[in-house]
């Protein structure tokens, strides 16, 4: 799965998660409609499955580089897997991509310092950028699937994960493994996104009146807010 935390229903057509992703991608398509082709995209933490599900794998007018800690399989001529770290994209020159893209990855980097490095690298290698990430203030934490999980004391979260399966993770009886699983996820607020991407338009994705996640867009025309 690379850097992404994707559950089994992520690409099941008709599922709630699928509908969110499809609506989000439609907004992305509108934003990049006028960008000259061939379109060159770097997807930080991306997967073959994501681009296959949205019909962009195999296209002749788009070239996508997937960057992950462990390379994805090379399935399509226009989707190029690469081994790399979201916080250090030094193998790519400044402005070498039309779009730096990332979907649900930046929250997996443990610290705000690492998130800042990723944001800097996205802004450096991409002439424009598109980033989605879950909202810290949404009541259901999307990785552990527990109400108010991110607001509980760290020690309590570690104790719970050592004993129970929470969302896609656990149980992790080993205390070090549980601590690492807890510390890996750092959800962002809108204010923090504006700090990381000072020139971005930050759009909300809403569910039942709550902001479920944020989309930070820079250097692209932005349509109406999602949700």
Based on DSSP secondary structure assignment, what is the total number of beta strands?
7
| Average residue pLDDT | 92
Helix content: 25-40%
Count of structural domains: 2
The largest sheet has its strands arranged as 3-2-1-4-5-7-6
In short:
This protein has 227 residues and is of the alpha/beta class. Helices cover 28% and strands 20% of the residues. It has a seven-stranded mixed beta sheet with strand order 3-2-1-4-5-7-6, with helices on one face.
Question: Mind explaining what this structure looks like?
Answer:
Mean pLDDT is 92; it is low at 1-9. The protein has a seven-stranded mixed β-sheet with strand order 3-2-1-4-5-7-6, with helices on one face. The protein folds into two domains: 16-140 and 185-218, Rossmann fold, CATH 3.40.50.150; 144-184, no CATH class. 28% of the residues lie in helices and 20% in strands. The protein is built from six helices and seven strands. With 227 residues, the protein is α/β, with parallel strands linked by helices.
What distinguishing features does this structure have?
alpha/beta, 7 strands, 227 residues, globular, Rossmann fold, single chain
Present the secondary structure layout.
Blueprint: H1 16-32, E1 39-44, H2 48-53, E2 62-68, E3 79-83, E4 99-103, H3 112-125, E5 129-134, H4 154-163, H5 175-184, H6 190-196, E6 201-207, E7 210-218
Helix pairs in contact: 4-5
């Amino acid at each position: 799965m690379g850097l992404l935390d994707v559950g089994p229903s992520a690409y099941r057509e008709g599922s709630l998660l699928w509908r969110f992703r499809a609506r989000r991608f439609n907004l992305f398509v509108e934003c990049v409609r006028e960008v000259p082709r061939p379109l060159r995209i770097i997807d930080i933490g991306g997967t073959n499955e994501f681009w296959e599900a949205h019909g962009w794998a195999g296209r002749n007018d788009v070239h996508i580089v997937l960057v992950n800690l462990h390379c994805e399989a090379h399935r399509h001529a226009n989707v190029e897997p690469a081994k790399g770290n979201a916080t250090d994209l030094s193998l790519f020159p400044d402005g070498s991509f039309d779009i730096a893209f990332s979907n649900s990855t930046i929250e997996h980097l443990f610290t705000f310092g690492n998130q800042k490095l990723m944001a800097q690298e996205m802004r450096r290698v991409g002439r424009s950028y598109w980033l989605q990430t879950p909202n810290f203030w949404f009541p259901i934490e999307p990785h552990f699937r527990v109400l108010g999980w991110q607001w509980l004391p760290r020690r309590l979260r570690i104790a719970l994960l050592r004993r129970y399966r929470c969302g896609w993770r656990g149980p992790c009886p080993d205390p070090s493994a549980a601590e690492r699983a807890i510390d890996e996820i750092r959800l962002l607020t809108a204010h923090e996104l504006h700090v990381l991407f000072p020139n971005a338009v930050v759009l909300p994705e809403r569910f039942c009146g709550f902001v479920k996640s944020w989309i930070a867009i820079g250097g692209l025309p932005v349509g109406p807010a999602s949700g």
